[in-house]
Amino acid sequence: MAGGIVAGQLSGTANAQTQEKEKMMNQQAYKKTYKPLVLWLLFFLAASTLMPMGINRIMQEHLKITWGAGAEVKMILMFMVLAIDGLMWMIYAGEYVYWINGGPSFEEAKAAGSEKRKAYAEAHLKVFLKMTLLCCIYLAISLLFRFPMGIDIVAITAAVVGAAIKTMPIRFD
Length: 173
Known about the structure:
By secondary structure, this protein is an all-alpha fold.
């Protein structure tokens, strides 16, 4: 019986040492970089205008589908919302939580470990994914009832700002 207790203690100690070793390796591999953010910004600037206009042109010329005035603006707004989701997913996947305004510094994020970084990024991602769902529903209704472009811009901007405000209480500590 005493041998079982000692074996259990040794097993627990070995498990704790393994977890500590994994944490140390994780912290060493976590590097500060802004390259993915710069690439996202370049993609966002190019694609947020060119992609929706190209899609609308293809729809009109090749498929003979006309969405009416302001359809390009609606597509640009939707693309921008999806691009924000893409950025939040990139922060989650790469654990770049130090990119988040009001978030931890790189040193704090590195010291905290992967689980804490993932949880923090996931909390932000969930808020923005819900906002995207609402924007999709709104834009579908807007297309159906042909809401004015100005209302679309105000509604989508309010949704993005609202999501950003909703993430403010999320704390890293």
